[in-house]
Amino acid sequence: MNHGIHIQKLNNMLQIFKIIIITSLFSMILISCSSEKVEEPIMKKVTPQDKQLKLEDFTSIGLKKNKAYKVEELPKALSAYFGFIKFNEPSEEGKGKKVVEYELRIYPSHEDAINYGTGYAEERVGPEAKLKKSHNPRWKEGLRDARVCIGDQFDGGKNSADCGQPKFNEFYIYGNVVILCEGRTQEISKRNCNSITSRLEPSLENQ
User: Fold this and answer.
1) Averaged over 20-40, what is the pLDDT?
2) What proportion of the chain, given as a percentage, has pLDDT over 70?
3) With 70 as the cut, is the pLDDT of residue 18 above it?
4) Which residue from 15, 23, 29, 166 could staple onto 129, CB 3.0 to 4.6 Å apart?
5) Are residues 21 and 72 in the same domain?
6) Integer distance in angstroms from the first to the last C-alpha of the chain?
7) What is the dihedral of CA 87, 90, 91, 94, to 10 degrees?
8) 46-47 and 168-174 as β-strands: parallel, antiparallel, unpaired?
9) Count of CA atoms in the C-beta half-sphere (13 A) of 113
10) Residue 62's CB: how many other CB atoms inside 10 A?
C-alpha cells in the first residue's frame, strides 16, 4: 500500500516537472521572438529617389545632427552634416544599443550626387582613405570626425598611437545624398548604410 502511494507521488512530481519544463521553454521562445531583429529590405548602393532630400528627412528617422560642415570646396554640394542614429537593437560589439555615426553630403540632384560626389566620397572611406591634411584630400572639412583610433572605439583600449584609421568604410548614394557610414569593416559599414536608407523608404512613401 505504501509502495503504491510512493509511486503515485513520484508520478505527480514528474507531471509537475514536465509542466514546469514546457512552460519555461514556451517563455524562452516568446522572449526570443520578441527580441528578434526586424528584417530590413536590402538596399542598393546607388538608389534614385524622386524627392529632393533635405536634412529634415534624416532627422525625422532619428538622426541627431552633431555638426554642419562648410561646403565651399565640395563641388556642387548644397550642405554637409555629421551626426548619428541610435537604433533599437544591440550594437555590433554587444554592449548596449547600436549607435552609428554618419556623414551626409546633400546635392541638388541624384545625378550631381553621383557625378560630383562619388570621387570625393571615395577619398574618405576604406583603407586608402585620405584622412589627414598631409594626404592632400581635396575636401578637408570633417577629417578629424572621419578618423578613429585602433583600440579606442572598436577595441576598448585607449593607448594606441594609430588614430588615422577610417571611421567610414562604405558609402551609399540615396537620391541626392551621399551617405558615409561608420563601421570597422566594409561589411559592417554596408549594414549600417542599409539601416539608414531602408528607414528612409517608408518615411518618404508616407509623404
Assistant:
1) 49
2) 73
3) no
4) 166
5) no
6) 78
7) 170
8) parallel
9) 26
10) 14
- Long-range pairs for 118-125: beta carbons < 8 A, 24 or more residues apart: 118/173, 118/178, 120/74, 120/75, 120/178, 121/171, 121/178, 121/180, 122/171, 124/166, 124/168, 124/171, 124/180, 125/166, 125/168, 125/169, 125/170, 125/171, 125/180, 125/189
Q: Is the dihedral of CA 80, 83, 86, 91 positive or negative?
A: positive
- Do 21 and 112 have their domain in common? no
The CA–CA distances, whole Å, from 119 to 11, 94, 184 equal: 74, 34, 21
Which range of residues forms the domain containing residue 31? Answer: 1-36
pLDDT band at 97 (very low <50, low <70, confident <90, very high): confident
Query: What size, in residues, is the chain?
Result: 207
DSSP assignment string, 19-74: HHHHHHHHHHHHHHHHHSPPPPPPPPSEE--SS---HHHHHTTT-EEEEEE--TTS
Q: Which three cell numbers stand for residue 35?
A: 527580441
Q: Cell 509537475 sits at which residue?
A: 16
- Structure confidence at residue 34 (pLDDT): 37
When pLDDT is cut at 50, 70 and 90, the band that residue 164 belongs to is confident
| Residue 167, beta-bridge partner list | none
Residue 107 is predicted with a pLDDT of: 98
134, 199 Cβ separation under 8 angstroms: no
Residues 25 and 66 grouped into a single domain: no
Residue identified by cell 551621399 is 178
> Do residue 97 and residue 144 come from a single domain?
yes
